[in-house]
Amino acid sequence: MDKRKRYILVLDTETANTITLEDGQLDMSNVLVYDCGWAVVDKHGTVYETASYVNRDIFEGEAELMKSAYYADKIPRYREDLQEGKRIMLDTAGIHSALIDTIKRWNVTAISAHNARFDYNALNTTQRYVTKSKKRYFLPYGIEIWDTMKAANSVICKMPTYITFCEANNYLTPRGKPRVTAEILYRFITCNNDFIESHTGLEDVLIEKEILAYCFRQHKTMEKDLFPLKEEIPLTNFQINLLHSLKIKPMLNMGK
User: Fold this and answer.
1) Is residue 200 part of a domain?
2) Are 42 and 107 in contact (CB under 8 A)?
3) Alpha helices in the chain (DSSP H)
4) Is the distance from CB of 58 to CB of 186 less than 8 angstroms?
5) I need a surface site. Which of 86, 134, 209, 222 has the fewest CB within 10 A?
6) Residue 221's closest CA among 154, 169, 156?
7) What digits encode the pLDDT tens for the residues 84-114?
8) Within-domain flag for 201
9) Would you say residue 25 lies in a domain?
C-alpha cells in the first residue's frame, strides 16, 4: 500500500426485490442483497484488490425471494461461478467482516457506487432483515459515500459530446435529458456502443470505477457525495473567547 495515495472502494449489489406483506401485496422498497462485489481502486481507476461474494442468507436462505430477483435467470451462472471459485459464498455477517477488513487494510476513506442510495439502502435493509434490526447499518460510520451517478450528472452529462451521443442513439429520458445509466456512460467512455452491462456485482464494479476515473480526469467541479456535508455553523464571539481562555488556562475537573 502506497500511503501517498487515496484508496477508494467501489461497490455494487444485486438484489432480490420483493417481500410479501401481510395483505399479500409486494413491497418493492425492501430489497435484499444476494450479490455484493467491490474493488479497491485509486482515482485513476487502477485496481488493487477485488472481491465477489454471494450472500448465503438470501441466495440459499430465501430461495423463494430469489425468484423475485430482477436477474433471477442468472442464478445458474452464480452456482457455476461458486463451483469454479470465481465467487465466494458467505452470510451477511461474513461479507460485512470482509468489507471492514478490506477498508482497514487499505485505509479506504470513501466508498463509491452508481446510484449509491440504492446500494446503501439495500445493504442496510439486508442487515436489518437478517439480524431482526439488532444491527442496522452495514457501511462503517463516518466514511464518505460517493455516487458516480451524481458525479456523471455534474461532469459527463454537461459535455456537448455526451449530449450529442445520447441524442444520436436516443439515450434520452422522457423529458429529453441524457440518460445516466452505468451501461450508457460506459458505452460513451469506451466508444463501444455494443457494450452490455453484466448486472452482476463485481463485473459492474469494474465499469463503475471507470466512470469515476473518467470524471476525475476531466478536472471539473464534481458533486459526488451521497450525503453532502452540512455547512459549519460559525462560532459566536462568546464561544471563540471561551475556547481561547481554555487554551490559556484549561479547566481541571478536581472532583468532590
Assistant:
1) yes
2) no
3) 56-59, 63-66, 75-84, 92-106, 116-131, 148-154, 160-169, 182-190, 201-217, 237-248
4) no
5) 134
6) 154
7) 999 999 999 999 999 999 999 999 999 999 9
8) yes
9) yes
Structural domain range at position 96: 8-217
Quick one: which of 212, 40, 24, 9 has its CA closest to 123? Answer: 9
Q: How confident is the model at residue 128 (pLDDT cuts 50, 70, 90)?
A: very high
d(CA 145, CA 117): 9
Q: What is the Rg, in whole angstroms, of the alpha carbon atoms belonging to the chain? A: 22
Which residue is associated with the grid cell 478490506? 102
- Report the CATH number that the domain containing residue 211 is assigned in CATH: 3.30.420.10
Considering the entire predicted model, what is its pTM? 0.84
What's the CA gap between 219 and 242, in Å, rounded?
Answer: 42
Does any domain span residue 92? yes
Cβ-based neighbours of 15, under 8 Å, separated by 6 or more: 31, 32, 33, 34, 35, 69, 70, 122
**Amino acid present at 197:** E
Q: Which three cell numbers stand for residue 223?
A: 458533486
Domain count, the chain: 1
175-227: per-residue pLDDT in tens? Answer: 999 999 999 999 999 999 999 999 999 999 999 999 999 999 999 999 999 98
Number of alpha helices (DSSP H) and beta strands (DSSP E) in the chain? 10, 8
The single-letter code of the amino acid at 153 is N
